[in-house]
Every structure is written in structure tokens, then in C-alpha cells.
Amino acid sequence: MASRNLQQVSNPSSASAASPQPQHVHSPADPRELTDTAAPPPLDRSPADTEPHEMTVSLKNFRRPGEKTFTQRCRLFVGNLPSDMTEDDFKKMFSKYGEAKEVFINRDRGFGFIRLETRTLAEIAKAELDGTILGNRPIRIRFATHGAALTVRNLSPVVSNELLEQAFSQFGPVERAVVVVDARGRATGKGIVEFANKPAARKALDRCADGALLLTMSPRPVIIEPTEQFDDEDGLPEKLLQKSAQYHKEREQEPRFAQPGTFEFEYSSRWKALDEMEKQQREQVERNIQEAKEKLEAEMEAAKHEHQLMMMRQDLMRRQEELRRLEELRNQELQKRKQIEMRCAVPICHLSSILKISILS
């Protein structure tokens, strides 16, 4: 092995015989190799290589696979606009975030609406432009309220997003259908259906209120209602609070814990007791409802089995009746054949007797 390594090192020296310096073989474990090895020459970087490069990102990267574009979830409300803001200036403000649709501006009231291609682009635009100073005042950007969103309850655990969208597409175009799950990915029995327009949502509400929409074999209809929408992202910043007389009165003291034996502690305890009583009553109501659901589920299963038995009995009776009719038809056919055979037998006997007479004569 050592001779082989030596041969590998000596081969380059034979190729460059003009170099008078001898070649030395160092062991890889020799620590002096680090100090004897010459440092690599510095790279010659041109000024163009040292300049920062601008990263370009395609707007298509902000669209998830299968995501629908220009939906109600991509619609932004822009408030506190200057009175001289034109529609062209409004569109230009959002031009870097891709194509925009449904551009509307109300100069008199100082607000507008705009719909971008995807939810991600709308979130980026909101994060970057909210609070921008225009006309010596900051603009306010929020996601517009979705007026065609419905909450669906009483869903079976086997219902998926796709089945939910399929079931509600009969009322109109569906932009998004989602089954709500918990932290472990288990279905909670609730879902969200967002239509493209309000008439479709109203049609779904009316049809499901008058009838019973079933998504699976179970006769358990879904319950739908308008979605109660909240803003749990931006909340209520301090700068947006109205500084009224009540505000200044309530904010005279900083957040604190009530001290035992004080007026604050006494009424704080009473408020907590009231909240605990409300919690217990809600839990009792939920237990009663759960028991009623389980009872109804058991009754439904029993009735389903009874219905299946009844259908099996009816099917058996129908088959027996068909067998009886087939047997009657068979008997009738046999009787017809016997009659035909008997009719054919009489002429033959008569003919044989005639033959015998003629022979004797």
C-alpha cells in the first residue's frame, strides 16, 4: 500500500521533470501538513460578482396546487383613503401583487375594495400596505367580510372536503369547502362552505331549512347557518380605540390582581362564581344533548335493522309469489301438452282400426 501511494505521488513528478525540487510524501496524519501546505491563491472577483443580485420570484409560486383564484377570500377592504384617490392610483398601489379584479373605490366615504389572485398575495399586500401614509393619514387594510359563507354542522366522520363541495355544488359555484378538524386531524362534525355569490348561499339555506340534505347513507341531515365571522388576526390595536370619556376612566389603573378583602376582590369573586355556574349549566346541557343524540342514534340503528328485515321479508314473499306463478305456468303447460297428446292419440287409433278392417276384407 505504501509503494502504491508513493507511485501515485511520483507519477506527477515524472511528468514535470523540469522541476528540480524533490517531492516529499507526507502522511495524512502528519499535523505539519497543515502548516507546510501552501494556502490557495485568493480568487479574483470582479466588481460585478460583488454586487448583490436581485431575487425574482414568480407570482405563480404563491398559488397552492388546486387553489381557486380571485375568490372572496382574496378580497381586501381598504379604508381611510384620501379623497383625491383615483381608481388608477388605487390599482397601481396593488400592481406589484399581480392581477387585480373587482376594483371599487368610494371617494366620498374614503374606502375601496380590491380582489387579488390568491389568498397568499392578499396577505402579503395587507401586511406591506396596512398603515401606509397617504395624504397625511394611514390607510387601513382588512380582509373583506365573506357574505356567502355557511357553517355546516352534524357532519359524519366519513365526510371529506371533496364530498362536502360535491354536495353543495348543486346550489351554485363553491369557492371553498373545508371539514374542520382538531389538532390531531380528527373531524369535529363541522365544516365551512364558501360560495362565489350570495344567491347560491341563500338557496342552500332555504333548501336545507325546508328539506333534509343527507350526505351519506345515514339519515342524519346536515344543519347549516350563516358563518359568524371574526377578526382574530389583527384584533383591536390601541391606535384604533376611540379615546372617549369611558376609555380614560377605565384606563386610569394598570392591569393588576384584586387583593383579598377589598371591594374589587368581593365582586370579582362573584363574577367568577357566575361564570362557573354558566359553565356548569352549559356542560349539563351538552351532556343532555349528547345523551339525546346517542339515544336517537340507537333508535335509528334499531329502526334501520327492522327496516332491512322488513325489506328482506317482502323480497322473500315476492320471490315465493314468483315461484308460485312459475309453478302454475308449468302445470298449465303440462296440461296443454297432455291434451295435445290425447287429441293426437285418437286419430291414430281410428286409423289402425280402419287398416285392420281393410286387411281382413
From TrEMBL:
It comes from the Eukaryota. Residues 1-53 are annotated as: Disordered. Keywords: Coiled coil, Nucleus, Phosphoprotein, Repeat, RNA-binding. Gene3D superfamilies: 3.30.70.330, 6.10.250.1170. Residues 7-23 have a biased composition (Low complexity). Its main location: nucleus. CDD domains: NOPS_PSPC1, RRM1_PSP1. The keyword Nucleus applies. It is found in: Nucleus speckle. Residues 74-146, 148-229 form the RRM domain. Residues 275-343 form a coiled coil. GO terms for molecular function: RNA binding. It holds the Pfam family NOPS. One of its GO terms (cellular component) is paraspeckles. SUPFAM superfamilies: RNA-binding domain, RBD. Belongs to the PSPC family. This is Paraspeckle component 1. The gene is pspc1.
